[in-house]
């Protein structure tokens, strides 16, 4: 090959190499732009008109008819609470990130499980932290707040808001017979939720369970593992108990918990109208919570 031809081949190769670099750069730029667009879409500011909205932690909120608020479709997850705990708040609850049943069996062994071992005080602190974080980032408008649902709002979310009369949560507890978050069938239909089932009986001896019902989880299950209700909300029955804002009764020593948990076999404890009163500083391997978003003005 002549020297001139060698030079031309070399020049052609360099041009080709340069073109490849430019193509790679262009592809990289397009991919980066797409990634930014996706992130922006995921973390878009809250709009009250949205049918569904995802916040900066990836928590998803659906509006609930007859209320002015949106409910988290899931119980608050271990990974949500982890971000809050990283700010070193003073918590009542211990072992929220490695909950153990009887100090042996893992209850929430992953980031998508509902956080438990959380007191009412801890749950409120989480909501206040999240409100501050998202206001600062412009994700929610001024006046909007995250908080626990009221007892009445929880009733609307579970579909019995129009069937309860006045009175304290204690007065209303378990007063609507035969109505569960999944319907009126008991034992529940397959896939209705995570309760004390045959899986729990396999793992723990002498447990009272729902005979004939198997959900696959001896303790908690990842949020959203079962069928949602008509408003797209998961695990209103079973999995983790959920704190509500209200006092349980006029004594004002206990706060309301609803929804039953993975250790309940019902039927009373799984009624849509059942409530439990628990002191606000108490926590256990079944106490979790769900946030709501109040849109403000
Ligand atoms: Ca179960």
Layout of secondary structure:
Layout: H1 3-42, E1 53-54, E2 60-63, E3 70-72, H2 78-85, E4 100-101, E5 105-106, H3 120-136, E6 145-147, H4 151-158, H5 169-172, H6 198-203, E7 241-247, E8 255-258, E9 275-278, E10 287-288, E11 292-294
Parallel strand pairs: 7-10
Antiparallel strand pairs: 1-2, 2-3, 3-11, 4-5, 6-11, 7-8, 8-9
Bound molecules: calcium ion.
Calcium ion (CA) binds at residues 194-195, 197, 199-200, 215, 217, 262.
Task: Please provide a written account of the structure.
It is built from 6 helices and 11 strands. The protein is of the alpha+beta class. The chain folds into 2 domains: 1-45; 51-294, paralog of FGE (formylglycine-generating enzyme), CATH 3.90.1580. The protein has a 5-stranded antiparallel beta sheet with strand order 1-2-3-11-6. Strands 9-8-7-10 form a 4-stranded mixed beta sheet. The mean pLDDT is 91. It binds calcium ion (CA). The site of calcium ion has 8 residues, from helix 6. Residues 194-195, 197, 199-200, 215, 217, 262 line the site of calcium ion.
């Amino acid at each position: 090959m002549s020297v001139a031809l060698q030079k031309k081949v070399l020049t052609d190769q360099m041009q080709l190499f340069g073109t490849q670099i430019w193509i790679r750069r262009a592809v990289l730029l397009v991919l980066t732009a797409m990634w930014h667009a996706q992130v922006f879409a995921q973390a878009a500011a809250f709009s009250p008109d949205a049918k569904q909205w995802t916040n900066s932690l990836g928590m998803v909120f659906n509006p609930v008819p007859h209320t002015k608020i949106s409910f988290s479709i899931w119980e608050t997850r271990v990974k949500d609470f982890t971000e809050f705990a990283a700010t070193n708040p003073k918590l009542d609850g211990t072992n929220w990130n490695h909950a153990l049943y009887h100090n042996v069996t893992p209850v929430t062994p992953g980031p998508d499980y509902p956080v438990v071992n959380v007191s009412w005080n801890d749950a409120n602190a989480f909501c206040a932290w999240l409100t501050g974080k998202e206001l600062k980032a412009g994700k929610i408008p001024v006046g909007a707040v995250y908080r626990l649902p009221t007892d009445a709002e929880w009733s609307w979310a579970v579909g019995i808001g129009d069937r309860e009369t006045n009175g304290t949560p204690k007065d209303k507890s378990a007063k609507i017979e035969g109505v569960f978050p999944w319907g009126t069938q008991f034992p529940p239909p397959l896939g209705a939720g995570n309760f004390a089932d045959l899986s729990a009986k396999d793992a723990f001896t002498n447990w009272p369970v729902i005979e004939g019902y198997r959900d696959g989880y001896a303790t908690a299950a990842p949020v959203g593992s079962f069928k949602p209700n008509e408003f797209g909300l998961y695990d209103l029955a079973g999995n983790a108990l959920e704190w509500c804002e209200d006092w349980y009764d006029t004594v004002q020593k206990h706060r309301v918990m609803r929804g039953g948990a993975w250790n309940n076999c019902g039927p009373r404890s799984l009624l849509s109208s059942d409530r439990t009163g628990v002191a606000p500083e108490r926590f256990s391997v079944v106490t979790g919570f769900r946030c709501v978003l109040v849109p403000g003005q």
